[in-house]
Recover the amino acids of this structure.
């Protein structure tokens, strides 16, 4: 088994796509008006409109109500990313300034426009780098 995608359900696909294009620097693929995806080397972040849930099970996902999952992105330099994000047109709400965590990652925690938590992190200890194969 392999985890290949995480999907965020939203009421406003264009707003969330614009946000993630700016914060990640990646261009979204848009195979349909109600769906977009950011394809990375290890996993894909998909963004779907609430209407797409009708194809699965209406009401199964409720936009803007996540209080448990964190979308995590490995970056080269968390502090540099923090500075870059402050200059974007869609400045995210920072939840935690860059902080070195006990497990060896330096992390920046912020929210996307729907309130989902996003973590940009960089392994800064030998142990953290080893866990990520670096």
């Amino acid at each position: 088994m392999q985890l290949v995608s995480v999907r965020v359900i939203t009421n406003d696909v264009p707003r969330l796509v614009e946000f993630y294009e700016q914060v990640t620097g990646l261009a979204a693929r848009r195979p349909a008006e109600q769906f977009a995806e950011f394809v990375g080397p290890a996993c894909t972040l998909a963004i779907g409109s609430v209407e797409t849930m009708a194809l699965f099970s209406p009401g199964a996902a409720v936009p803007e109500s996540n209080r448990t999952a964190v979308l995590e992105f490995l970056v080269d330099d968390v502090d540099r990313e923090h500075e870059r994000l402050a200059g974007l047109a869609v400045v995210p709400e920072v939840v935690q300034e860059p902080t070195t965590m006990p497990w060896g990652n330096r992390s920046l925690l912020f929210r996307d426009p729907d309130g989902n938590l996003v973590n940009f992190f960089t392994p800064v200890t030998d142990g953290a780098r080893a866990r990520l194969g670096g």
Remarks:
- Residues 66-134 form a domain with the 2,3-Dihydroxybiphenyl 1,2-Dioxygenase; domain 1 fold (CATH 3.10.180.10).
- DSSP finds three helices and eight strands in the chain.
- The mean pLDDT is 94.
